[in-house]
């Protein structure tokens, strides 16, 4: 099977879906890998690196998209829709529950779309979402600390405070991988940190592993409202597998925050858990609502592409190897984890949460 690695075209998206090491493994397994020229530049990998690993370097996106299996980082953008076709298998982050237009295009064009974010292990873990969730959670706090500085639009608070001056307050909605990663960094920087979640066992685990200064609260509406009002930095970290993120934080809650506070909603690519959030891009990342700074970049890990590319490729490569070796029927039959990742197939929506998001008929793989 031919495997295509196109260059990412999302605004300031510097990641690439596969490292030269991953290419080498596929080539050794007998697969042909086609890499668009310049695809790895943003992550520090040259065409020569890929060529030395055994890849065929091609000059145009259409050449890479012409492969049987295309492996990407982010969802196709409108100018890439023309590359979608019935005999194509696309393996990437899709987040279709927040992308009606893309969903309908993929259905119309008959492409098989396997979403990294819905590949699911038997114990419920999401192995291909986890590495980018770790990166995004850490970045959310770094970025929040940056925007709290007065010259960047914030209130002028130092996240960790100093002797005799209290630290900033960080409120994190959601105690999963993103939330835990954000809490770890915020605590390390000396902030006062509150994590809210509906799952008490998850909060208990966070208390056990993070210890110092961590405050945990059940995410009932009153507790959320109180914690949001107190926050200097609010991090949205809510995840519902494959579905649109519920709006947990209302505009009224945001309006109660102190002017110059910062909202960073990591779940924005699934619609966002903060009512006032909207998608932004790295070249224009922030806006203000009621004096509160909002950051809604949908591809946050793209800011640290070397780390993100390596982490993502490490996680996805075993699945890419299986898909390339066995094809769709064989790979899905032998790997139920991968089968859960199929969101659209042969003109049908095959992931229930996506179908329900848009009132489209759900047809399970059969």
CATH class value of the largest domain: Alpha Beta
Cα shape: globular
Helix content: 25-40%
Largest sheet: 8 strands, mixed
Major beta sheet, strand line-up: 3-2-1-4-5-6-14-15
Strand percentage lies at 15-25%
Q: What is the CATH superfamily label of the largest domain?
A: NAD(P)-binding Rossmann-like Domain
CATH topology of the largest domain: Rossmann fold
Distance from first to last alpha carbon: 23 Å
CATH architecture classification of the largest domain? 3-Layer(aba) Sandwich
The number of distinct helices, counting runs of at least 4 residues, comes to 12
In total, the number of domains comes to 2
Order of helices and strands: EHEHEHEEHEHEHEHEHEHEEEHHEEH
Radius of gyration: 21 Å
Q: Structural class, please?
A: alpha/beta
Instruction: Let me know the average pLDDT.
Output: 96
Structure overview:
There is one protein chain. By secondary structure, the protein is an alpha/beta fold. The protein folds into two domains: 2-119 and 305-358, NAD(P)-binding Rossmann-like Domain (Rossmann fold, 3-Layer(aba) Sandwich), CATH 3.40.50; 130-303, Rossmann fold (3-Layer(aba) Sandwich). 35% of the residues lie in helices and 17% in strands. It has twelve helices and 15 strands. The chain has helices at residues 20-28, 47-52, 61-65, 100-109, 130-148, 177-188, 200-210, 221-230, 251-255, 305-334, 336-339, 352-358, and strands at 2-5, 32-36, 56-58, 69-71, 89-92, 112-115, 169-173, 192-197, 214-218, 233-236, 262-265, 286-289, 292-295, 342-345, 348-349.
Explain briefly what this protein structure is.
The chain is α/β, with parallel strands linked by helices and 366 residues long. The chain has helices at 20-28, 47-52, 61-65, 100-109, 130-148, 177-188, 200-210, 221-230, 251-255, 305-334, 336-339, 352-358; strands at residues 2-5, 32-36, 56-58, 69-71, 89-92, 112-115, 169-173, 192-197, 214-218, 233-236, 262-265, 286-289, 292-295, 342-345, 348-349.
């Amino acid at each position: 099977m031919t495997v295509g690695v196109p260059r990412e075209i999302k605004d300031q998206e510097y990641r690439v879906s596969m490292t030269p090491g991953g290419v080498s493994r596929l080539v050794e397994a007998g697969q042909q890998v086609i890499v668009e020229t310049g695809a790895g530049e943003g992550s520090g990998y040259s065409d020569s690196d890929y060529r030395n690993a055994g890849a065929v370097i091609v000059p145009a996106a259409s050449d890479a998209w012409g492969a049987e299996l295309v492996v990407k980082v982010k969802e196709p953008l409108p100018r890439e829709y023309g590359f979608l076709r019935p005999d194509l298998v696309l393996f990437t982050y899709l987040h279709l529950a927040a992308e009606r237009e893309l969903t309908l295009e993929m259905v119309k064009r008959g492409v098989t779309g396997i979403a990294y974010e819905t590949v699911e292990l038997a114990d419920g873990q999401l192995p291909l979402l986890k590495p980018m969730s770790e990166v995004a959670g850490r970045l959310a706090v770094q970025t929040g600390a940056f925007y709290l500085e007065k010259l960047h639009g914030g209130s002028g608070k130092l996240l960790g405070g100093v002797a005799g001056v209290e630290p900033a307050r960080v409120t994190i909605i959601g105690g999963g991988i993103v939330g835990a990663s954000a809490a770890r960094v915020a605590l390390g920087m000396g902030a006062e940190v509150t994590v809210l979640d509906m799952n008490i066992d998850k909060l208990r685990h966070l208390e056990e592993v993070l210890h110092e200064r961590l405050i945990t609260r059940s995410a009932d509406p009153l507790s959320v409202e109180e914690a949001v009002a107190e926050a200097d930095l609010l991090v949205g970290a809510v995840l519902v597998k494959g579905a649109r993120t519920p709006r947990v934080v209302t505009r009224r809650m945001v309006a109660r925050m102190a002017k110059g506070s910062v909202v960073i909603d990591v779940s924005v690519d699934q619609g966002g858990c903060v009512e006032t959030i909207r998608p932004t891009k790295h070249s224009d990342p922030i806006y203000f609502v009621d004096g509160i700074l909002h950051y809604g970049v949908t591809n946050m890990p793209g800011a640290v592409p070397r780390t993100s590319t390596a982490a993502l490729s490490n996680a996805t490569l075993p699945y890419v190897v299986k898909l390339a070796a066995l094809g769709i029927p064989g790979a899905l039959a032998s790997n139920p984890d991968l089968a859960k990742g199929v969101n659209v197939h042969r003109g049908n929506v095959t992931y229930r949460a996506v179908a329900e998001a848009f009132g489209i008929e759900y047809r399970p793989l059969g």
